[in-house]
Specification:
The structure holds two protein chains of two kinds. By secondary structure, chain A is of the alpha+beta class. Helices cover 34% and strands 20% of the residues of chain A. Chain A has three domains: 5-214, Rossmann fold (3-Layer(aba) Sandwich); 229-429, Ku70, Chain: A, Domain 2 (Beta Barrel); 584-717, Serine Threonine Protein Phosphatase 5, Tetratricopeptide repeat (Alpha Horseshoe). Chain A is extended, with a radius of gyration of 36 Å. Chain B has five domains: 31-263, 3-Layer(aba) Sandwich (Rossmann fold); 273-297 and 358-461, Ku70, Chain: A, Domain 2, CATH 2.40.290; 305-355, no CATH class; 475-568, Ku70, Chain: A, domain 4; 586-646, Transcription Termination Factor Rho, Rna-binding Domain, Chain A, Domain 1 (Orthogonal Bundle), CATH 1.10.720. Chain B is built from 15 helices and 18 strands. A seven-stranded mixed β-barrel of chain B has the order 6-7-14-18-17-16-13. The two termini of chain B are 50 Å apart. Classes of the chains: A alpha+beta, B alpha+beta. Chains A and B meet through strand 7, strand 8, strand 9, strand 10 and strand 11 of A and helix 3, helix 4, helix 5, helix 6 and strand 7 of B. Strand 9 (263-267) of chain A pairs antiparallel with strand 11 of chain B, so a sheet runs across the interface. Chain A: GO terms for molecular function: ATP binding; damaged DNA binding; DNA helicase activity; double-stranded DNA binding; hydrolase activity; telomeric DNA binding. Chain A: Keywords: ATP-binding, Chromosome, DNA damage, DNA recombination, DNA repair, DNA-binding, Helicase, Hydrolase, Nucleotide-binding, Nucleus, Telomere.
Chain lengths: 718, 647
Amino acid sequence: MADKEATVYVVDVGESMADCHNGRDESDLDFGMRYVWDKISTTVAAGRKTWTAGVVGLNTDETNNAQDRQGLDGYDNISVLQEIGPMTMNSLRELRSAIQPSRSHAGDVISAIVVALSMIEVFTKKLKYNRRIILVTNAESPIDDESADDIARRLNDSNIELVVIGVDFDDAEYGFKEEDKSSVKRKNERILRTMVDQCDNGVFGTMAQAVAELAVPRIKPVRPFKAFDGPLTLGDPSKYESALSIHVERYFKTKRAAPPSASTVVINTDRGGATQSETLDEDTEMGGAEFSGVKHMRAYRVNDDDAPGGKRDVDFEDLAKGYQYGRTVVPFSESDFSVTKLETKKSFTILGFVPFSSYNPSINLGETGIIVAQKHNEEAELALSALIHALHELESYAVARYVQKDNVQPQILLLKPNPAIADEFECLYDVPLPFAEDVRSYQFPPLDKVPTVTGSVLKEHRLLPSDDLKEAMGDFVDAMDLSSFGVDDEGNPAEYAPIDETYNPTIHRINQAIRARAVDPESPIGPPAEILLRFSKPPETLIKKAMPDIEALIDAAEIKKVPAKARGRRGRKEPVKPLSGLDIDSLLGESKRTAISADNAIPGFKQTLATAEDDATVETAAKQMGAIVRTLIQDSFADLFYGRAAENLRVMREELISLEVPALYNTFLTGLKKSILSGELNGDRREMWFKHIIGGRLDLITQEESEVSEVTADAAAT
Amino acid sequence: MAWGGDGDGDRRPEADEEDELDETDYKTQKDAVLFAIDVSSSMLQPPPSTGQKKADKDSAVAAALKCAYQFMQQRIIAQPKDMMGILLFGTDKSKFRDETAGRTGAGYPHCYLFTDLDIPAAEDVKSLKALVEEGEDADEVLVPAEEPASMANVLFCANQVFTTNAANFGSRRLFIITDNDNPHAKDKSAKSSAAVRAKDLYDLGVVIELFPISRGKAFDVSQFYDDIIYRDPAAEAGSSDEVRTSKAGDGLSLLNSLVSNINSKQTPKRAYFSNLPCELAPGLTISVKGYMPLHRQTPARTCYVWLGGEEAQLAQSETIKVDSATRTVDKSEIKKAYKFGGEYIYFKPEEAASLKNLGPKGLRIIGFKPRPMLPMWASVKKSIFIFPSEEHYVGSTRVFSALWQKLLKDDKVGLAWFVARDNANPVMVAIIPSRNPDEDAGETPYLPAGLWLYPLPFADDVRDVGLPATPRPADELTDKMREIVQNLQLPKAMYNPLKYPNPSLQWHYAILQAMALDEDVPASLDDATQPKFKQIDKRVGGYLADWKELLAAKAKGLMTSRAVKRDAEDEDGDRPLAKRAKPAAPNKPAAGGQMSNAQLKLAAEQDTLKKMTVAGLKDVLTSKGLSTTGKKADLLDKLEQWIEENV
């Protein structure tokens, strides 16, 4: 949220923090810093000036704090490592070098809290802030708890939350207990716990839990956005007295969160002498000046028969805006421009009602809104409530035309009643529905019968499930039911994989990797957190339980995988015949086509190959096609015949792969490349090569595509 | 229109959409349709007069041309990158292309290329419109030849049109409209050469769609056309490639019948993905194809036009990437990095790839739930239709069908993990069945039967709106509202999108067409999405009036009771603040966000608003959905203006 934040981290860097405990192979400090780095890097990621943080080191070798400077006692070995301020990558880097285990253990936790507290008081003055102190320690150094009560009171007065996260602190709730705890630590834990309890706003926890929870993605909270505030009408209030008008507000209920998008950047070239590729390979430091963003500049060109290449540049100033109607461009003057926009007035009006049973959610076209009555408007509250309940009782939805504001495109929304049975507040939910233009009529054969050519209908067929299969499917679906497979907070059966437990894996995977890299640029990226892939497969226990049904279904289904080889078009195929089954090849034999004509190149080529009896015929056909392609390129006015040449090449490539003679294509293409690049084919034909051949993936046939090819993927890339 | 450039919905242009809808095939996913219309004397024959007013008046040729005209207009709106052309055959005159291609009309006697295959231009629309609507046939095109055209010639002519104009289109279709089921009844060799030319078309990748017209005698495809037509290699297993004959009768004119037959082939069926493995359970995988029968259509974007030449010309834009010193940047220099804390965080390409890879492409079912368990608000984007394919797993269709039947029978949905292609972002989907369109209980008669991948929101996509609880409903009001709802059902008790054209889109293209054809700009639009106000008044006006009266009374009651309660609370000094567990900041007066409109108005009148803190002002503004940017004075202005307008 937009609230301002001031957080001070108090990190114990004492010598005991350098040790590893409880079977961990990382030091207490590294373990605890996992939590702190995650928190701080989240703040950096937000990039907000109003989210500020500071860091205080406890048990540092030096002493550097305001209290000590004022000559107060008991503030030794406490250092302000970073004053409160916005977090940047720079501060992150500085902190990384500052936070190292020390050789001291004489610092006092309570004093460090006081240092943090006064930092916050000074920084935030009396302004509105979320204030917080987060203490990370293993509590192995002695604490002077004399003034703990006073400090807790001061925290409360200043409205500061105190969060204490201890390494290996006992936590019965989480289920952690350190067996060989030192007596100092036991005492210290008690002191800290008592202090947190005295705070109005306090959290006391063990580090293991905090670190475990880091894997649970945090969802960026978004302030509710009001999309509409105005009347929902039934009838036209401006014309009919009877018309109904309810003052409502509409907010977004769902809105797709987007994964962070990568920016296009280049490596800065003006840095002392280093060439670009070298800096890339040794890309170890995250120096601030290393990359810079790329800008886009647009150039405009028009066709001009007289210009070289058939195109010439035009100035942006000479261009008007317009629309395309088919291939005709229709220019619009600035004043005419708005004419094509339908004039609409902000409105929200009901067209009519439909029963639940006539709606399938698969026609939803987008995100959901939520509609409630205007606040503090009794009439609207009662009216909307009555509409919601009437719809619910009649199992009906309303269909409405929605114009968010003046001159915005109308939408058709389906309004669904939510009468506060599952949730605590009643409302209408809305989803956008399609218009006529949004529906494409695709025909598919029926799934439960097979029509025959003669017009009769088959109910038994290899494409239709047998009764056994239907039964097995039924048992399988029932066995894999998730409606009570999950467990709720109290341990009762609940829905498995409800929406609030499914996190967008892409967003959190990328964010987590970015934060990790920002904190530690050297370390490789780890695997995705397990929680992100939790719903990528069915729960194992359920699969185990349903195994007999799964096996029965597999038996009844009799699925046969088509081997990869058979799928391809290798070897001779059945001749293709029209519906009547007429043998066209024999007719072709009669008409004796000897040479492939440029007019009918593709059919001619395919038919020659289909009836070819020896390799020589194939080779001749390939040569003829090659000649046709060359002629097309040579004769092409600008790029006129390029598409046709490319299509001929595509067919040639495909057919020669399936006949397992890729060398014929590769040899031809190598020659063609030379001709094109040397300008032999009547001018500059490089566009043909780069856009159509390389861009159209018509380059050399590699071993990956055809085993008998002599061209490796690497060789083709050069 | 190619998949690549699609936006999704008009709510937000989606940056990641491009990413998701990558070109699955390197061949351009564009469609070219050539109408081949038989111009014979029987096709030109007007229908026998029945004396009825609404009787069919169109000859078969006129109906075919009207269809083509409609098709052309729809194509400009919905598929602006797709081509179409019109070839008339059996005409007395012959015309191929005037230009250089070397061939003249002589090459294809009795073939008249009325509109060459291309993206339609305004001129094409205009001349077709003149022929169709005004019957202007100055060139005497619609005159049948003495002898019929050779079908081999017609097919080869079409072959040439496709070869030159739509060389690398992913979909090329020849629509033959004729009433002659046996053009070469007496000439066996003409029949054979037609079959050979048809095979050429097949090898070229052109699909022939036959639209037979019948007046009386049934059209017998086995006479000739079974030698011409091939099974579409892309068709689903089990499909019968039904050829539907158009005819007048049953209250349907020939035109309507033809329009509906042609419309069903308007869009070429393009798969969004093919042969996606669908894992029902460990060890049981079938393959499915995906389609997008639903897709939000938006007006084409604006373009830049160069007016310096004789006629307006489209200016093609080219993007050049430059660095901070406006030096042109080579493609090989470009890196992708993430902004973080004011700097760039860089991943090596192989690292970036591994970040995106969260599992191979596929659809994996993780279990099933009753359909009502889908929260009614759980909607984020359009669904994808899936249908089985036998190509990789034989038996996919029957397993798919069994699953579809089971889900329908028990009103269940599947829950699945879905990755549309390698490196696509995974989503959770509900698998929802749709009924046969011709079934009575069908919810979606305009959509095919099968399964839909319905994208579910992630927790990240759900907004917490946090609204206060609402009062107990008034039963009488609800009862009376029921009568209103019951009396205002939409036709056939369903929302059928086909009845509701998008008004913005219709208007946009109506204006554009008028400007392009130099016609008068229409004054208004017949907007089917406007409610029928008169009907509403007539049907429920009485109920509504009663209801409003009752509402006024109830609202007054509620207002009074609330006021009493508020006063009581005021006396206790127990303002709503205490109800919230929020810690009160020591120096903060009443939390602004909770001031009622009346309190605000009072404050405005007494000029005490300015005593509020900036934070308090922001709270109020936020609660009213207003922006909270600016200095205190700006905030005060905004709030005062709001109070003036709304309270």
